[in-house]
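ok so heres the complex, three chains, lmk if somethin looks off
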Amino acid sequence: MTRQPTAFEGRVYSAISRIPAGCVSTYAEVAREVGCGSAQAVGQVLKRNPFAPKVPCHRVIASDLSSGGFMGEAEGARIRAKLALLKTEGVAFKNDRLADPAQVFRFKETAGRLTRRP
DNA sequence: ACATGTTCCTTAC
DNA sequence: GTAAGGAACATGT
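and the predicted structre for the whole thing:
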């Protein structure tokens, strides 16, 4: 499996890699950041993620604030470990869901948002 | 349930 | 070796 990383994979890994600790991001946000409107593509790449701990894929959750998947499993002990790991980083989960949506990191947070109100 | 974007596999020439 | 089609996916609405 000497598969070379494609441009899409590089963008995805780069985007996820810049997620600060104690924060989480959503598949939709990552997909949008990489220039693609499909979180499925991100999920597909992450599932086959050849670099498991290299990229903090555990910091990526679904837009529904659900845990999503981890290491090729949509649910199970792996998800439990993911939640535990996030909890260790300062992200609190409740009932398989993000307790504080404010911890979701946004890539466009730095850009001037006209629709943003004080 | 369907749509969406990318990756992977099989088959054909 | 290259081409084309179909299947799958940790989602989203």
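quick notes: Chain A has a mean pLDDT of 86. thats all i got rn
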